[in-house]
Design brief:
Number of domains: 2
Mean pLDDT: 87
Radius of gyration: 20 Å
Helix content: over 70%
Structural class: mainly alpha
Number of helices: 9
CATH topology of the largest domain: Tetracycline Repressor, domain 2
Amino acid sequence: MPRTTPSATRRRLARGEQRIAQLLDAAEREFVEVGYHAATTNGIAARAGASPGTLYQFFPNKEAMAQALADRYLEELSRVYSFVHDPDLALLPAEELVERTVEPVVAFTAANPGFKAIFAGAATPPHLAASTQRLHSALHGWMDALLAAFRPGLPAEVRQVKATVALGIVRAMVPLIYAARGAERRTLVTEMKGVMRAYFASLPTE
């Protein structure tokens, strides 16, 4: 029996990871275009140029694919908001803080339409509640950490309420921004920045 070399194993794993990424990309498109409830594993496989059997080698159902997308979104958001623990945020004016907060959210939403379609709408499936809560808790944690760095003198209980309000502003505006195009989208982004800038500037220092 031929031995499997380490390089062959790495190539096989890389092919598997590439196939998983392709399937998740296809699942995201399917969820966005036909809706999560109407999406099927056959439709997802067809979009990925794979057979249903290939899909089932990696995912037992579309629920598992949505949960894997949640993990991918969480990983990407972790990179986007890695700056929130920077103590130098306390030195920034509210305007610059808003730029560093809003633009990554807009870019992330545009690059990951499935996030809104599956996890940021009123029609989130109940069986994905745990994944949805995990994403929302992470977002709240990052906003809380950002405010802790920006206003280190704020008591934790006050800061957490402020983080909830700030995140609520973002969550209310992002679907409107995502649905808009061109000049209208930029106008809405500018308006959201104005609201966030005023809110951050109004935060007490202690």
